[in-house]
Amino acid sequence: MENSIKRIGVFTSGGDAPGMNACIRAVVRTAIYEGKKVSGILHGYQGMIDKNIIAMDSRSVSNILQLGGTILKTARCLDFRTTEGRLKAYNNIKEEGIDALVAIGGDGTFTGAEVFSREFDIPVVGIPGTIDNDLYGSDFTLGYDTANNTVIDAIDKIRDTAASHDRLFFIEVMGRDSGCIALNCGIAGGAEAILLPEKETGIDELIQKLESAAKDKKSSTIVIVAEGDKNGGAYNVAKRVQEKFDFYDAKVTILGHLQRGGSPSSFDRVLASRLGFAAVKNLLRGQTRIMVGLRGNDIVTTSLEEALRSKEFKLAEDMIEMTNVLAI
Amino acid sequence: MENSIKRIGVFTSGGDAPGMNACIRAVVRTAIYEGKKVSGILHGYQGMIDKNIIAMDSRSVSNILQLGGTILKTARCLDFRTTEGRLKAYNNIKEEGIDALVAIGGDGTFTGAEVFSREFDIPVVGIPGTIDNDLYGSDFTLGYDTANNTVIDAIDKIRDTAASHDRLFFIEVMGRDSGCIALNCGIAGGAEAILLPEKETGIDELIQKLESAAKDKKSSTIVIVAEGDKNGGAYNVAKRVQEKFDFYDAKVTILGHLQRGGSPSSFDRVLASRLGFAAVKNLLRGQTRIMVGLRGNDIVTTSLEEALRSKEFKLAEDMIEMTNVLAI
Amino acid sequence: MENSIKRIGVFTSGGDAPGMNACIRAVVRTAIYEGKKVSGILHGYQGMIDKNIIAMDSRSVSNILQLGGTILKTARCLDFRTTEGRLKAYNNIKEEGIDALVAIGGDGTFTGAEVFSREFDIPVVGIPGTIDNDLYGSDFTLGYDTANNTVIDAIDKIRDTAASHDRLFFIEVMGRDSGCIALNCGIAGGAEAILLPEKETGIDELIQKLESAAKDKKSSTIVIVAEGDKNGGAYNVAKRVQEKFDFYDAKVTILGHLQRGGSPSSFDRVLASRLGFAAVKNLLRGQTRIMVGLRGNDIVTTSLEEALRSKEFKLAEDMIEMTNVLAI
Amino acid sequence: MENSIKRIGVFTSGGDAPGMNACIRAVVRTAIYEGKKVSGILHGYQGMIDKNIIAMDSRSVSNILQLGGTILKTARCLDFRTTEGRLKAYNNIKEEGIDALVAIGGDGTFTGAEVFSREFDIPVVGIPGTIDNDLYGSDFTLGYDTANNTVIDAIDKIRDTAASHDRLFFIEVMGRDSGCIALNCGIAGGAEAILLPEKETGIDELIQKLESAAKDKKSSTIVIVAEGDKNGGAYNVAKRVQEKFDFYDAKVTILGHLQRGGSPSSFDRVLASRLGFAAVKNLLRGQTRIMVGLRGNDIVTTSLEEALRSKEFKLAEDMIEMTNVLAI
């Protein structure tokens, strides 16, 4: 099987994440080192359909290791959900001589990759690239660590001004279904309270915490709200809190897309390099429809089918318990 | 006159700004070096009225040079606008033995200081501390440089994701009346367009620029909107642009209070130290009702009266002209 | 057993590491939350001998989560290696009412803790705090992630100037016996070659790599040298390379103690909080002479005896293999 | 005169400095906006001699605003000091159609440019680009502000570990003839003492300061040493201090080339853009053999002859005086 692969196509899809470039670099250089050719597919699945494909060599990935974003760009692509779209995509990559794929992205990316690989019998390996850390099969996804560092840098800055004015800040962070960033950064940022999609927190319970913090004369008070919190986002939470509790002047910050950018952290650069390296190695070993991931300090593989079907509750019990303890 | 001052009171008032702590440190240590005593007044004018005043020595300002915010805290104070409030404040500081003041803040702070100094014949020197850079009498105000660095760091991160998705970003920065941060960071961040309070930009004119950028295949497109822009903030601008121009998917980021925090830049730490040093030196030389400031590389003084009355158009002509040239 | 503990003593010992303050905070607040009292022992074991011990409450650890270094200070202590020293230490902490200990540090710290705990039958839990990541029983030690980020930030800066001048840079990083930082940062920084204590690299082999890089017209060339590399440090390596290979102008940078400082990364703050929380919980559950650590995403415990006796080869095979592949 | 210029050549020469790329971008885009063509000369004067010259358009400077180093590379060039070298250079640029030059660099760069411009009657405008801030005619040179921020970031990190161990650190910063970085960063970093090339400080005087700091129980003690200090660099100073004063364990850090790299600060990006813009505008207005610079908030010009002949003492008096006051 190994010998049959001649040209690997690599692409990024879904939301971009810091470390994607480091990962592309690892895929390209590992493939070339192994004697294979590489094509970069631009704008994810859309680029397959539009035949927006470029040849890549070692130098095309020079000096990208440290850059945020993705040089291959990314897009969401509706056409690829249709049989016609995928057929067109297949014909295009076939014409380019691409006979194996490395797909960097999240859930949606892997769903497309799984179907495509079955339909056209083309080998594919997935790499978990999303700041949300919401995939089964890897302790961490690419970009998650960098996003956490970006968020705590923002929290540290906001705490300066919160403490100077005795103000209460509600900071909304990314995570529609996953509270990973919120929980992690809430602890790392010393937040008073953390609102997660996975766990309902009533407004009264929140106010009780804030009242107790105010009584203890804490100098700054920060509440982290995950995008997907059931109370409807930081603006709503702030409004409802202020109706009943006006000890502090409350302010809201929505960090938004800031969280997707930035030079990847050391952790994400190494993870990106290891996953890119492993993806190519596994493809050449004849593996297909798998995802590469990190467990402890080891690179492991999971079938895409299992990765897509399974759920992993990533919020460590001790961390949830801690949120009530460390802010006293 | 010099010998008559025994104890200097220092306080921060209005919005906090990075560098205020470095400035407090310089005031305290210079005064002590000169054989004077120092009191820190907490929460600005409110602390005078509430007699929230602490004695300070060299060690009370150890390890604060690099911290954002202000250890003396700040607040807006309505009571100080009344004669009764100021009388109470005066009696309190008199009881504490404070016979001269250093006031760190902006317009509002200086207005209060000017009136108070006249009413009770107490010497006062003002230090321009605000991220807005909107004061007459100094090329730069404390915190402005740090805020600019914070904003361009955010723009750099957002550009990563903007470029990966071919997206258009509207980023709102602080500046209700002053476009300093917007103009400076628009140029430093390579923005396509910059909307300033001082200069009206029509939505059609803006769309024309964006169309031209799209035609030139620019990889990312960022529009900086000052808080005080006449079109009504970034959300409104984005909405009106998208109604007529849907080439890109548009996103909005409001940087908000993030801009007030953070460890001060080298520039702000040095400026803070020089202004704090100069404020005490001038007080001891018998000066009063003046503001210390930076002109070129020199520390200068301006009477508070003139500083409050005068307007300085701080947007350099060449910078405004450049905005149309550098984004081509 | 749980009920018998009344006052926990916490200290940091050996080289300082980012995250130690976040860890002290977690220990203090968890203990207080559980109804226990806490004392801070200053300067590690030296503070026990000198009775340099302070009472701590929730507020004594406010606003330290984000600070590098350790507020409890650290020192190396020869007296504690003697029976007399340890007896004096024991009498002092007994007088203070301390009946259990949390020791934050590395190998040397744990050796002392193990002996002391046996001699005087005092419960002790160790927390791995060292940037070297050279302890058995935890995938990562406190401060390691932050040190890696500091190093890659430096490499990124040096690459700017290396690329502008077509220069060759030798960068020496910490690690007398452990190549963890060198290997990790070499990969994360895109180094041409990485010299590790665990693996000999001959000068000729190194020159061959550099010649090949020069031929491929790589724009910058960076060699990472671990402190403990057998060739004798970056200056020696550079000198010996330049004798035979003068294609580039070579420069040396020794990062030194820079690597120990800085605000802890999100990863280290969370790790610090979890380990501090777990240390107290384990003490109160009657555990002693154990170390708490991280395996995958779980907090685990190892006996100090095993931790001190065992060796863990922390350089992942794939990472070593990668170093020859990714720099092509 | 304006109409006669058809193609502007731009190059960077001497040591690289953050902001050079932002400056190249401004030169290229301003020239194109004004209807001129632009060539980039690689490796400074060496590229003229080797005819290493590329055509540039608006897109060739996309996404470089935020990058450290210089995409045009830089080198020191001995051949250009000979008449033959310069003649060859002139013939090469003539063949490329270049009829005006923008030279970005320091003293040496300007000396070459002045001679070359006179010999071959080719218009040239210089832009001060060096982290040393040692040029007459501009309050600040390109890269100086960024270098200062890099240095204080390092000092802040080192202070963490210095304070944790009660250690004394000697930090050597760039500046062979100019103490600008040392003085500025010594104040911004809260150093105990600052050794400058412009002002001799005896070892005994230094020890006296350190003794007094030790007596005052300052928690960390940092001495900044400029490269060009008369005592012979940080290693020598440390050695001589330790011979007489062993209260602290002393450590040395040489920041080295780290100081040249990094993404330019907001200040440097704006300065770079303004100077690049002004250089082209002045060339097109018929100016030659001038340097553009910043005075206060204004862009000014100075003849190269005057810039090269004049000395400017850039260490503000108050800053020198402050060094004895603020560290108490």
TrEMBL record, chains A, B, C, D:
Localization (cell): Cytoplasm
Residues engaged in binding Mg(2+): D107
Coiled coil: none
Occurrences of domain Phosphofructokinase (ranges): 7-281
Residues that, per the record, bind ADP: R25, A26, V27, V28, R29, R159, G190, A191, E192, K218, S219, S220
Positions annotated to bind substrate: T130, I131, D132, R167, M174, G175, R176, E227, K251, H257, L258, Q259, R260
Gene Ontology terms, MF aspect: 6-phosphofructokinase activity; AMP binding; ATP binding; fructose-6-phosphate binding; identical protein binding; metal ion binding; monosaccharide binding
Superkingdom of the organism of origin: Bacteria
GO CC annotation: 6-phosphofructokinase complex
EC numbers, comma separated: 2.7.1.11
Catalytic activity: beta-D-fructose 6-phosphate + ATP = beta-D-fructose 1,6-bisphosphate + ADP + H(+)
Entry keyword annotation includes Cell inner membrane: no
EC category name: transferase
InterPro entries from the UniProt entry: ATP_PFK (IPR022953), ATP_PFK_prok-type (IPR012003), PFKA_ATP_prok (IPR012828), Phosphofructokinase_CS (IPR015912), Phosphofructokinase_dom (IPR000023), PKF_sf (IPR035966)
Pfam families assigned to the protein according to its UniProt record, in alphabetical order: PFK
Recorded family membership: Belongs to the phosphofructokinase type A (PFKA) family. ATP-dependent PFK group I subfamily. Prokaryotic clade 'B1' sub-subfamily.
Subunit structure, interactors included: Homotetramer.
Record-given protein name: ATP-dependent 6-phosphofructokinase
